[in-house]
Amino acid sequence: MIDWLRREIIEPEITLGDRTLAIVLRRHPRARRLTLRLAPDASEVRITMPAWARSAEAIAFAHARRDWLGAQLTRIPQRRSTGPGDSLHFRGETITIDWREGVARTPMLKGSCLMLGGPCHALERRVSRWLERQALDLIVEDTAHYCAQAGLEPVTACLSRAQRRWGSCSDKRRIRINWRLVQAPDPVRRSVVAHEVAHLVHFDHSREFHALLGSIFEGDLAWADRWLKDHGRSLYAQFG
Q1: Where are the domains of the chain?
Q2: Class for the domain spanning 123-236
Q3: Is the pTM of this model over 0.90?
Q4: How far is 80 from 237, CA to CA, in rounded Å?
Q5: Radius of gyration (Cα) for the chain, nearest Å?
Q6: Beta strand pairing status for 19-27 and 44-49?
Q7: How confident is the model at residue 138, as a pLDDT?
Q8: Backbone dihedral angles phi then psi of residue 53, each to the nearest 5 degrees
Q9: Under a CB-based contact definition with an 8 Å cutoff, are residues 114 and 95 in contact?
Q10: CA of 163: how far to CAs of 42, 43, 202, 222, in Å?
């Protein structure tokens, strides 16, 4: 079956129902087998593959699991609107958008309501910017905390709008954290920040890395990982 698919499949894409998704291949030096998943926003199919694996085999692997991918696609939350009276998630809680004509444009959180005024047609963008500002403040604070826990000098923390990663650390001077994590419970966001801070010391997933991460993060890493696995896609349901 795989041999036949390898000959027939040329383009790195797959059709699931009425959607055609790109198949993105990523070689990883420590990978021992092919692993398959959908992007959190269902924009593409991702395959992590060992260095020795052939691209044609990886693409065939995705096509052979078309039914599983289709089932996963149906579980992706549908895009939700953001307008007066709609709800959104902030730090794991549900808040309601309270738009009122004549109120200040800048959103202000009061209890479980996010109050704002200004042109209604631009409301979604203003709410999105407010969330990003909140995310940056929290992530800067989280980063300073975990750098101190790890005995490091503070580094720059930036927001990411990545569709593929919750966090990244490309050098020892800066980390990037997906702004959408501001919608998740605080321990989930903080676990990602702690993960990237640990990468400032160990740029791998060695035993030493996990030992450091476990020593600086105060929460339940397994719970935070499960939450992202089970609910991470829901963070893409609003704001494009």
Answers
A1: 2-74, 123-236
A2: alpha beta
A3: no
A4: 6
A5: 20
A6: parallel
A7: 98
A8: -70, 150
A9: yes
A10: 9, 8, 24, 23
Pairing of strands 174-178, 156-160: parallel
The one-letter amino acid at 3: D
Q: What is the C-alpha separation between 131 and 139, in angstroms, rounded? A: 12
Residue 175, H or E segment: strand 174-178
The pair of structure tokens assigned to 51 is: 């260095």
Q: How many residues does the chain have?
A: 240
> Is residue 139 a contact partner of residue 192, using CB atoms and an 8 Å limit?
no
Tell me the sheet residues that pair with 113.
96, 110
**Per-10-residue mean pLDDT for the chain, 240 residues long?**
41 84 88 85 86 89 90 76 90 96 92 94 93 98 97 95 85 92 98 97 93 97 94 84
Do the Cβ atoms of 95 and 88 come closer than 8 Å? yes
- Closest C-alpha among 36, 38, 39 to residue 49: 36
The DSSP secondary-structure symbol of 183 reads: G
* Look-up of token digits 């020593």: 215
Q: How many CB atoms lie within 10 A of CB 109?
A: 13
Report the alpha-carbon distance of residue 24 to residue 164 in Å, rounded.
11
The per-residue DSSP string of 54-96 comes to -HHHHHHHHHHTHHHHHHHHHTSPPP----TT-EEEETTEEEE
Q: Which residues contact 4 (CB under 8 A, 6 or more apart)?
A: none
